Structure formats: C-alpha cells, structure tokens
Amino acid sequence: xxxxxxxxxxxxxxxxxxxxxxxxxxxxxxxxxxxxxxxxxxxxxxxxxxxxxxxxxxxxxxxxxxxxxxxxxxxxxxxxxxxxxxxxxxxxxxxxxxxxxxxxxxxxxxxxxxxxxxxxxxxxxxxxxxxxxxxxxxxxxxxxxxxxxxxxxxxxxxxxxxxxxxxxxxxxxxxxxxxxxxxxxxxxxxxxxxxxxxxxxxxxxxxxxxxxxxxxxxxxxxxxxxxxxxxxxxxxxxxxxx
Amino acid sequence: xxxxxxxxxxxxxxxxxxxxxxxxxxxxxxxxxxxxxxxxxxxxxxxxxxxxxxxxxxxxxxxxxxxxxxxxxxxxxxxxxxxxxxxxxxxxxxxxxxxxxxxxxxxxxxxxxxxxxxxxxxxxxxxxxxxxxxxxxxxxxxxxxxxxxxxxxxxxxxxxxxxxxxxxxxxxxxxxxxxxxxxxxxxxxxxxxxxxxxxxxxxxxxxxxxxxxxxxxxxxxxxxxxxxxxxxxxxxxxxxxx
DNA sequence: CAAGTGTTTTTGTATGACAAATAAAAATAG
DNA sequence: CTATTTTTATTTGTCATACAAAAACACTTG
Lengths: 242, 242
Hints:
With 242 residues, chain A is mostly helical. In chain A, 63% of the residues lie in helices and 3% in strands.
C-alpha cells in the first residue's frame, strides 16, 4: 500500500493517473515495460479496479500506455507520448532538471514563435490585434511576478490565437510551462520589466503594421532576452521577464 | 439507440470515445455545451455506464471534456484540445474539408520543419544520420504509392528524431496525417518521384555536412513542392510525392 | 433580505460476476 | 521430431448494482 503517494486534491482516478503518469515520466517504468495488472494496482494503491481502469484509460488516451487482454498494459515508446498535453508536459517538467527543461522549451519556442508571429502579422483580425494590445497593457500594469507571468502567458496565447491556425494551439501549453518555469530564474522581488515590455511592444507594432519580417526578428530578440535571463544575467545587466 | 454509430473494430469504450470524439470535433457539441449525462449516453448507445465513463475519461484526458459532479461533462474550449493527439487529429481531419486540412497542415509544416532540419543539422548523431540515409533508400525502393507515403513518413520521423528535442516529437503525428492526406491528391498510378527524392536528398546532404542554412532552404523547397502538388500540378509538370 | 439549510442531481467509487481475447502450454498429427 | 491444433490460464473488457460525495438550486429561517 502506497498511501503516501496519494496526492492531495482531486478524485481517486485522477490522482492515480497523475501518480502513475509521473512515475512513467520519471523513468520508473521505461517504454516497453509491462506494468502491474489492474488488480495489482488496486492492491498497491488500495483502490478499486474501477478507479484503476479509469486512470489507465486516461493515460492510454495520452499515448503513454497500450492495454491488451491477457498481456496487460505496456508503456508505449516515447515518440507516441503526447508531450504537449498539459498533464504530460507537467510530469515531464518535474521529471527532468530545470536547466534542460528550460533549454528544450526555449529551443522549441525559437522554432515555433517566429513563425507564429509571421502568421499573426499576415492574418490577424482587428479584434485579435486589440486583444494583443490589451495583453500588453496587462503586462505593464502587473505588480507582482506571478501577475507578470500570467499576463505574459496571456500575451503569447493571444499571439497564438492571432496566427489563426488551430494546429498551433497545443503549443500554448508549452509556452505557458516555459514562462512559468522561468519564474524559477527570477529570484528578485521587483524585476525590471521595462526592457521586456518594450520587446513585446516591438512585436505588436510589427503585427499591427502587418510587417511579417520585422515581427519575426522582434520575436527572436524577445527569445534571446529570455535566454539571457536563463543564462543567469551574464549578458545583460538588468533582469527582465519575457 | 444509435447502434449504427457503433463503428467496427475495437472494444466498446474505444468505439464510444471515437464516436463521441468525432461528434465533438464535427461541431455537433460546441465548446461550452453540456453533454448528456452518463446514464443517458448509456441509453443512447445501449452500453453500460462503466463503458461510458471509460470513454469519457479518454476524452477528458485529451482535453476535450471536463466533468464535475452535479454538473455533468462540458466540452472544453478549443484551445484546450490536444489537437496534436493522434486520435483528435484524425477526428479533426475527417471533420473539416480536405483542402483546408491540407492548407493548415502545410502552414504548420512550413513553420516547424525548417527549424527541425536546422536542429538536425547541428545536433544529429552519426547513427541518426544513418537512419535518415536508410529512409531515403526506402523511398527510392518504394513501388506503390502507399509504400512511398510510408517511407516518406519514416523519413520525416527520422528527421524529427535527429533534431534531438523531445518536445518536437508530437509533430510527427501532424506530418504523418499531412502526408497521408496528400495521398488524396495523388490519383495517378505511378507518380514520378524522381524530383521528390532529389529534394529529400538535398536535405540529407546538408544535414550530413552539418550545414543548417542549406538544410533549411532545402526543406523549404521540399514543402514548396508539396504545396505545388496540392495546388493541382498547376505550377509543375510532373506530380511528385513529398 | 440574507444566511444558512436541505434537497436533488450528477459524477465518483466500490464490489462482484462473467465474457472475450490471447499468449503460452499441452496434446496431437504427420 | 517437428508442425499443427487444442486446451488452459491470465488479463483486460463489460455489465449490473449500490452507495458516497460534491455542488447547484430551492427553500426555509433569522
């Protein structure tokens, strides 16, 4: 019985899914591994088989497992995992060290976001531009670091929205995790956000002008700035959030 | 009772999840809509509540639904949907028309893949390069169109692998769907694949030389070629697959 | 009118019983 | 002795039933 593992919050099958999911992402059950069967999980966590099955259905839906009669549930190869799923990404994040998480999210953002702002510059509606401007304003008004991160997430989500491509939306989760993990690197109480806001403004200005090229380079600068923060303020004198 | 809807293949809860998932993606249940409760689903499809619940857990895991006691299951806003999930993407694909699916996947590829090949050029291991070369060979040897598509999918997956960024892996599903949807546009029995293979070779050559810039532009040409196919061979004289 | 209280609806959880699938072992045929 | 078929055992799949817990809503009461 692993009562300790039963995390606070939520119902049994969700907690179970989370616990098993975390253990898979942490590498305790490698791809190809045969998991304990349903009855055994029930014994291990002291829950009913119903709850176990529902948890397993959740994990199967996220591409982590594959169940077959007489076999059991096997961990799927990593390239089947829905890493851009909210939960899976969170489990992944807490399974690896902060620096390599930051490194791979930044690498991903560097691929995606310049393309996103180009699309946004070309295809944004007037309304989407307004939302973008409003997000900018929210960033300016933010008083605490969590507020700023929230506003920043809102900004990048508005960007994603403005790109008008549904297939790109799943990236919002990645950006959200990237930005809130960035929180780890901003130990100062009152970070200077002037520069970050300016960089964001540059992006919006270019999008307003429907200038894709300028928008792209502005976004690259913004990501460079974030990299600088992660690198530990070695290349910049003031800490910013982006 | 909607016995007709019970698609062939698979177990009850999977079929149910697929059916409900398709209906959501088709827009029958808009975001924010309250679905029938579990008992009702059971009556509608003539299955047990257990099966309904497992199906709902699957859909919830994919970000399509949110269930709460006394409320029921509500369809989540679109930006919560895991569109890059294998099943969801498939449902999405069959819910919209071919041309707009092709358009948005190509748009997405145009953002992602140039970045991917740059990473691959910089970070690929010797072994990953070998796999890439082998995929190329498989494309050359392919006799039927399905074989070619399979080999092509293998190639682009190898590319993704060579980029060495786990967060990019979920894109494999998108590329896979994009390429196999391309199948719709290749009505000819024996498409000329010479040009396509050459374009793929250019990419591999640049990656072998660790030349990121050349790799990027080679990939862009490759995607241009695919666009030409979709456009209906207006700008090219020979049909190719890519 | 406000605050708390109860009612009712829906999901959440547990248990028990079989069905179906299938890998592995055993029996059988060639 | 090998190949094929049959049996068996294990695990997931499915169903039915019962009760618990959460929470919106109506209602009562101060």
